[in-house]
């Protein structure tokens, strides 16, 4: 426990002793005053301090945020056992040692059973308050931590995504200038046409490079223009074939992905009139494929692998679906996932924070309801027992509300700590996640 908690207990003990001394003590002298202070401090520090230390120990060993269900069950068992022991100890010291109102045998035979039972309920009320306060403090701290972590993840993902997109502009320009440089010597007229086509293509690059996704239709149209540009240089050495289903045209892919893959085809394969390079762009279900026949060219300098790596990384930031690569002795194929909706996974907006806040608020409300129920039980049941025993000793009707309400409190505890509807929701979510992962595995 912290120092301020001990100071609080000292002030509570002093206030309680003053109240009992002036209200219930007949002989008001220094001896009785000191005796009242000692008794008050004993109860306050044993019950209040003991429950505080138990709560601190459980917070370290079983934090609410990491093991809510386990912590709830352990807390109920531990506080019941610990408070019974502490109450019996305090009452023994008070009635047997200090007041000498009974012998040890008389005490444990049941002379003070009612007082012990009443004090145990008061102790449980104190413990319930401390555990409720500890849970809400932990929940607030965890909620703030999660929001901060999500913001950091979002900023990191945004920075990484912007870095990847910024690779496209210089990468495309570098490759295009290399092509243009070759054409100037080989065919100046074609070089002029190439320059005009390159300006149109570069305009598209500038328009699309800042977008997360573009429609398949836009990307295919751009790829056709880019293929015409490559035809200008390679003529009959390269053949292109497009076979894309119309139903996929309004769906989405990563921008400039086809341009980067077409560059890879040209860069890594030989293309001559006698052995033309055939490139096919087509769809297979919800996948866009780029396939070429293998005519690997020998390269003096190892490739940096910017194009394909860029596409893979950008997809990983936008979806959990993977980019697949197939390679055999005859062909090389890349499969790009076609996305139905534009995902929003790299930004954490106010809606996400509002949902997290509402979930946390609902959880706090559930916990407050349970501890309010427990506190009411600990206060009202001892009062009913007192009324029953004071008015009618033969028929003990207090057992009915004690057991009935007690079962209700236990059921409430199981529901709040994960055995009721919250457990069902967790199980449903777990099954849905498994089915989702199995579905993506097949894709």
TrEMBL record:
Keywords: Membrane, Transmembrane, Transmembrane helix. It comes from Chryseobacterium luquanense. This is 2TM domain-containing protein. The chain crosses the membrane at residues 7-26, 32-53, 73-94, 114-135, 370-391, 397-419. Signal peptide: none annotated. Residues 359-433 form the 2TM domain. InterPro entries: 2TM_dom, Bact_2-comp_sensor_kinase, MFS_trans_sf, Sig_transdc_His_kin_internal. Residues 159-237 form the Signal transduction histidine kinase internal region domain. SUPFAM superfamilies: MFS general substrate transporter.
């Amino acid at each position: 426990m912290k120092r301020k908690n001990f100071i609080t207990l000292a002030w509570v003990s002093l206030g309680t002793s003053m109240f009992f001394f002036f209200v219930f003590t007949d002989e008001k002298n220094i001896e009785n005053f000191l005796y009242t202070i000692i008794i008050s401090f004993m109860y306050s520090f044993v019950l209040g301090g003991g429950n505080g230390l138990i709560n601190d120990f459980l917070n370290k060993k079983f934090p609410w945020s990491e093991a809510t269900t386990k912590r709830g069950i352990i807390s109920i068992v531990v506080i019941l056992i610990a408070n019974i022991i502490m109450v019996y100890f305090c009452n023994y010291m008070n009635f047997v040692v200090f007041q000498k109102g009974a012998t040890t045998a008389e005490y444990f035979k049941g002379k003070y059973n009612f007082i012990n039972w009443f004090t145990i309920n008061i102790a449980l009320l104190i413990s319930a308050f401390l555990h409720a306060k500890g849970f809400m403090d932990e929940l607030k701290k965890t909620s703030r931590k999660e929001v901060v972590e999500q913001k950091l993840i979002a900023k990191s993902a945004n920075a990484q995504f912007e870095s990847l997109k910024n690779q496209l502009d210089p990468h495309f320009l570098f490759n295009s200038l290399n092509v243009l440089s070759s054409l100037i010597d080989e065919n100046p007229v074609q070089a002029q046409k190439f320059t005009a086509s390159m300006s149109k293509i570069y305009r598209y690059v500038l328009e699309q490079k800042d977008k997360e996704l573009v429609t398949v239709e836009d990307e295919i149209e751009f790829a056709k223009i880019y293929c015409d540009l490559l035809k200008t240089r390679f003529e009959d050495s390269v053949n292109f074939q497009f076979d894309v289903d119309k139903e996929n045209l309004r769906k989405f892919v990563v921008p400039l992905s086809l341009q980067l893959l077409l560059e890879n085809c040209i860069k890594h394969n030989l293309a001559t009139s006698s052995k033309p390079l055939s490139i096919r762009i087509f769809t297979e279900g919800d996948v866009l494929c780029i396939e070429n026949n293998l005519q690997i060219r020998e390269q003096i300098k190892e490739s940096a692998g910017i194009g394909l790596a860029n596409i893979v990384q950008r997809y990983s930031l936008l979806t959990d679906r993977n980019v697949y690569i197939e390679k055999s002795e005859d062909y090389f194929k890349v499969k790009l996932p076609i996305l139905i909706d534009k995902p929003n996974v790299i930004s954490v907006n106010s809606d996400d924070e509002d949902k997290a806040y509402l979930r946390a608020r609902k959880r706090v409300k559930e916990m407050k309801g349970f501890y309010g129920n427990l506190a009411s039980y600990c206060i009202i049941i001892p009062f009913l027992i007192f009324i029953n025993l004071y008015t009618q000793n033969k028929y003990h009707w207090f057992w009915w509300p004690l057991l009935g309400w007690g079962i209700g409190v236990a059921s409430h505890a199981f529901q709040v700590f994960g055995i009721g509807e919250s457990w069902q929701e967790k199980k449903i979510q777990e099954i849905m996640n498994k089915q989702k992962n199995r579905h993506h595995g097949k894709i």
